[in-house]
Amino acid sequence: MPQQVLHPMVKLQRNVQSLVDSNIVKPTDSIWKIALLFGNDWQHWKQELLDFGFTMQDPLGELLCVETWDEEE
After folding, report:
1. Rounded distance, CA 9 to CA 38, Å?
2. What is the pLDDT of residues 7-63, one digit of tens each?
3. Which pTM was predicted?
4. Contacts by 15-24, CB closer than 8 A, 24 or more apart
């Protein structure tokens, strides 16, 4: 059985869910609140989020509720 490769945004989503579950951030917090937690990787993730139409003021809950990460070709 071939192993399914996770979209990189799913990994980010899981990391953010873990932060929410640990009460480090809340789903109502703005996306920008996680910037310091991702350190040197933040610029990459920020650009990915912007490419998917998010703003840094959007609540984390909006990121967590995405079910599929389709990229337009």
Report:
1. 14
2. 889 999 999 999 999 999 999 999 999 998 888 999 999 999 999 999 999 999 999
3. 0.84
4. 16/60, 16/63, 16/64, 17/64, 20/60, 20/64
C-alpha distance across the termini of the chain, in Å:
27
Question: What does 25-46 look like in DSSP terms, one character per residue?
Answer: S-TTSBGGGGTGGGGGGHHHHH
- Domain positions in the chain: 29-67
Nearest CA among 57, 64, 69 for reference residue 31: 57
